[in-house]
Structure formats: structure tokens, C-alpha cells
Amino acid sequence: MILGGHDHLNFAKEINGTYVIKSGSDFKEFNKITLTFPKNGISSENGHTEASNGAESKSQRKFEVSVETILVTRKFEPDAGMKEHTDYYLELFQESMKLVIYSSSINVLIF
Fold first, then answer.
1. What is the pTM of this model?
2. What is the pLDDT along the chain (111 residues), one digit of tens a residue?
3. Are the C-beta atoms of 65 and 33 separated by less than 8 Å?
4. Domain ranges of the chain
5. 4 near 24, Cβ under 8 Å?
6. 5: nearest Cα among 36, 40, 42, 30
7. Beta bridge partners of 7
8. Bridge partners of 15?
């Protein structure tokens, strides 16, 4: 499974037997990923499912993946501590945007 973010895309696909899940960018949405393993075995730490006798077959390694995209809206209350933290860095960022790092005497045409 490959998890990605900040790609401005939100999708989940199985490509050549590998699940690729991308969760968009800017925390506008997130994905809730649910893995469902076969009921005829016991899930092990490596993500494979082992039969009760300890043998493992290729078909038992397969699991189902479901992805639910959850839009971040005002229905979620901001965490006060996290908001304080992000507000601090947002203010630093906004101040840094006022800094002139280069100026030119060449006129630029904007269409």
C-alpha cells in the first residue's frame, strides 16, 4: 500500500496489485481507510492472514480495502491547542511574505 498526500488529487486505486491512496492537499479532505481481512484466518503483524494450522496461501494474503473520503468542513470543531500552534506559524509565514527578496527595474506585462 502506498499512501500519498499533497498531490491536489484524491483517489484510491489498485495498480498492479498495490493499493495507491492519495488524500489531496491543504487538509480539505482526508481518507478513512478500512482493511478487511478474510474471516477464515487470524491476522498477523505483517498484514498477511494465516490459516489456523500456520500455513499461508497466496489467496489468504488478499484483503479488501475501502476508502471513505471525508470533507473537512465547519462540522469539525478545531482543536484549541492545534489552532494556537498553527496560528503562530501562519503569522510567521504572513510576515515572511512581506519581505522583498529581489527587485527589478524591468517592467512586466500582466495580461
1. 0.54
2. 999 877 788 888 989 988 899 988 877 888 899 999 887 755 544 454 444 444 444 444 578 889 999 998 888 888 999 999 999 999 999 999 999 988 888 888 887
3. yes
4. 2-74
5. no
6. 30
7. none
8. 18
